[in-house]
Amino acid sequence: MGAVTPADRAPKQDRSRATRQRLLEAAVCCLAEHGWAGSTVSAVAERAGVSRGAAQHHFPTREDLFTAAVEYVAEQRSQALRELPVQGRAAVVHALVDLYTGPFFRAALQLWVAASNEPQLHARVTELEARVGRETHRIAVELLAADEQRPGVRETVQGLLDMARGLGLANLLTDDTARRERVVGEWALIIERTLE
Amino acid sequence: MGAVTPADRAPKQDRSRATRQRLLEAAVCCLAEHGWAGSTVSAVAERAGVSRGAAQHHFPTREDLFTAAVEYVAEQRSQALRELPVQGRAAVVHALVDLYTGPFFRAALQLWVAASNEPQLHARVTELEARVGRETHRIAVELLAADEQRPGVRETVQGLLDMARGLGLANLLTDDTARRERVVGEWALIIERTLE
């Protein structure tokens, strides 16, 4: 065998990145479906079709894996949100609420709630929540073309994101789509009037 | 020993009711602090200073105990809310949000999230959530003197309760009081303008 050349290394890095991504996606699904108590590195490795050793190479601890997974999906969602074609404030309100009603929110919620009882998760998830929260707020302000120099505008946008989070929670046990559509339709009008 | 007279029976019923109440209160604290995974009938019985046998006499299963506990506190909170002196809509908005930031909301959240992964809890908690949600909505409409005949008013009140739930979630890992006060201050004004 000859020396490892940069050309050999590149596909290896690609494979490693692909494995990491499969693990992160499997971790989010696992958390959303089974909660923190049912989410282990082994279960995720099996779901991703990766050996337990390889999973532990990427993520030494259970906490590493699941916080990285929630962060990964949060970044993907932020990216998707940033690329939204701007179609007016009402459409932005709907898109923001949609962030909180899929499997990602379910996974994040499981992690948040577990962190409230598990000291080894608490600091990491608190820091992650703050980071994701700031980023979502920043994107919301931009998409809504909200002028935060005006008194009350910052709090209006924050309250909207709190409402979106509450709507996500209301969708946890039952399909709340029909009610949510009516609520969001009305609140989109209120937000439009308030930010005018 | 003579026959059991009604006079003997009354204190026995009182004791039984007091035991039941101690168990329910201990169950809420246990759920709020340790989550569903850390909440067992034994742990609650010990906390309440009641024998495991007596606890099981009142609540045959773990599901019975914890759903009854969340329902009990929900009823207490509804009662307290109904007895609020009416001081205008802004004060009502603050009082509604307060419902979602204490140990009761923490306990309910743990139960809701556990129910999303535990089939034996799902149907009971879904039914409980619907009942508590309808009651809270009814009280909110009354306290806000909201005229649900007017288009959009029902959805405005629902969205406010969704926001309150989201604010509760934001208070789970850190003390969010300062930010929440600013958000609620602003949204109380928006609600006042919208319901005028």
Oligomer: homodimer
For the record, give the distance between the C-alpha atoms at the N and C termini of chain A, rounded to a whole number: 69 Å
Count of strand segments of chain A: 0
Uncertain residue segments of chain A: none
SS strand fraction of chain A: under 5%
Q: By helix and strand content of chain A, what is the structural category?
A: mainly alpha
**Number of helical segments with 4 or more residues of chain A:** 9
Form type of chain A: globular
How much is the radius of gyration of chain A in Å? Answer: 20 Å
Mind describing the biggest β-sheet of chain A?
none
What's the rounded overall pLDDT mean of chain A?
Answer: 92
Largest interface: A-B, 49 and 49 residues
Q: What helical percentage do the residues of chain A reach?
A: over 70%
Order of helices and strands of chain A: HHHHHHHHH
Any key phrases for this structure?
homodimer; 196 residues; mainly alpha; 9 helices; globular; Homeodomain-like_sf (chains A, B); transcription cis-regulatory region binding (chains A, B); TetR/AcrR family transcriptional regulator (chains A, B); HTH_TetR (chains A, B)
